[in-house]
Design a protein that fits this description.
Blueprint: E1 7-8, E2 15-29, E3 32-45, E4 49-53, H1 60-67, E5 75-80, E6 83-84, H2 90-100, E7 101-104, H3 116-124, H4 133-139, H5 155-167, E8 173-177, H6 185-202, E9 205-210, E10 221-226, E11 229-235
Parallel strand pairs: 4-9, 4-10, 7-8, 8-9
Antiparallel strand pairs: 1-2, 2-3, 2-5, 5-6, 10-11
Helix pairs in contact: 3-4, 3-5, 4-5, 5-6
The chain binds adenosine-5'-diphosphate and magnesium ion.
Length: about 250
Amino acid sequence: MEEEQIYVLADDTRAVVFETRGVTKVYHMGEVDVHALRGVDLQLYQGEFVVLLGPSGSGKSTLLNILGGLDTPSSGEVHYRDHDLSAASERELTEYRRHHVGFIFQFYNLIPSLTARENVALVTEISQDPMTPEDALAMVDLADRMDHFPSQLSGGQQQRVAVARAVAKRPEVLLCDEPTGALDITTGIKVLEALERVNRELGTTTAVITHNAAIAAMANRVIHIADGRIARIDTNADRKQPGELEW
Ligand SMILES: Nc1ncnc2c1ncn2[C@@H]1O[C@H](COP(=O)(O)OP(=O)(O)O)[C@@H](O)[C@H]1O
Ligand SMILES: [Mg+2]
């Protein structure tokens, strides 16, 4: 892997993993322009756990997709370490996603005919320095469910398989779009515990979109998005464990 350049702020010692400057996104829907992002300046730091909070339609998924190289801005700049994502080709974005980013979405997208272990192995077989599927599944507390098929697992367990699949390649960044959106409290907390453990043990920079304000208490920083802009950023002096969240 190439040497990574570390950006350090003058007034801060934390390495900057993502930096966006003036990012806008306009979707052209026939006659109508939808302004999904209206100028986002944001820095995310190495190893931090951020929650992106905001109402439906405020631009959270658009921003996350741009950070993850799934979408590109209409204007502005997006940097991941020394990669300029805003200037990258499709092929470079594919490489970026493959090597650096793990994604988790609201729906788990597991392959029904494969066991938990086999679903994770699909990724580890094509990665450079992966964990074993067994280690990845143990990390999300599914060591005893490895040979189950998705239909034999609860929604929360399926989502934890998806977390194992996303982190098995040891990505530097984990981007989660409403990972607990389809889950009840108890199973949602188990998924958040898995994300917290990955963040703590692997140092994976983690961004979690939610519209559940309770989840904000487990973040280092809470980025409030409203109407395509960052409305406010809060820093939590004390982070709660997922089990302590008041849903
Ligand atoms: N592919 C798309 N085509 C057209 N409009 C889109 C598309 N994706 C998102 N939008 C619009 O952009 C705005 C922001 O959407 P989104 O980023 O999904 O918000 P959030 O994730 O906060 O709910 C919304 O008005 C949405 O309808
Ligand atoms: Mg969304």
